[in-house]
Design a protein that fits this description.
Layout lengths: L11 H19 L14 E6 L2 E7 L8 E6 L3 E8 L17 E8 L4 E11 L2 E8 L14
Antiparallel strand pairs: 1-2, 2-7, 3-4, 4-5, 6-7
Length: 148
């Protein structure tokens, strides 16, 4: 029996191109940055809005507060920077090491302008919770309609 290599068909090129475009669309739409191997960026985050505030929750197990930096730039961008240290094992042989380590940066575009002077952050049980207040300029304003 004869073994064939990959079959070249004119429809597969456009299908693969379409799949790539759809993947890029979802990456932009849902803001799921991924590395080249498809692993979601670190740290994993949740972002939600309640009233005049936006909340960002990030998973940072074992994170040292001294190695964590938060900043608000451009009025609606939150940047988390830090470093996860490798857990050094003096004795023993690694069989699996899935937890990443090293420096990281995540910049999130928030759904509205925030007041950088009204940001609160706390790290509890490996979960960072950041609460950001909507900037006055981003709040809706009632417009008075005059009749003549």
């Amino acid at each position: 029996m004869m073994t064939r290599g990959p079959v070249s068909h004119p429809v597969w090129g456009p299908v693969q191109q379409l799949q790539g475009e759809v993947n890029r669309l979802f990456d932009r739409w849902f803001d799921f940055p991924a590395s080249a191997n498809g692993v979601t960026a670190f740290p994993a985050v949740n972002v939600w809005e309640e009233g005049d505030q936006v909340f960002v929750e990030a998973e940072l197990p074992g994170q040292d507060l001294k190695a964590l930096d938060l900043s608000v730039t451009g009025g609606n961008q939150l940047t988390l920077k830090g470093e996860r240290k490798v857990s050094a094992k003096e004795k023993g042989l690694w069989h699996r090491q899935e937890r990443g380590y090293g420096a990281f940066t995540r910049t999130l575009t928030l759904p509205f302008l925030v007041d950088p002077d009204r940001v609160e952050a706390k790290l509890e049980n490996g979960i960072l919770l950041v609460k950001l207040a909507k900037h006055e300029s981003a709040k809706p304003r009632k417009i008075v309609v005059k009749a003549e």
